[in-house]
Design goal:
Layout lengths: L2 H26 L2 H28 L1
Helix pairs in contact: 1-2
Amino acid sequence: MTGGEKAKAKAKTEQAEGKTKEVLGRALGNDRMAAEGQAKKSKGDAREGKEKAKDAFRH
């Protein structure tokens, strides 16, 4: 796996973990957990966007 592939995989993992934590936090009424999950998902979204931009410049 190349560096770019690893970063993309990490982005997908962050997005999935964040979404899960966000949904679980909301279901439990835990605003802090929901906010942490949303932040992690956003971090994954940003990482994915960065990798997509890199790919656009490579091609």
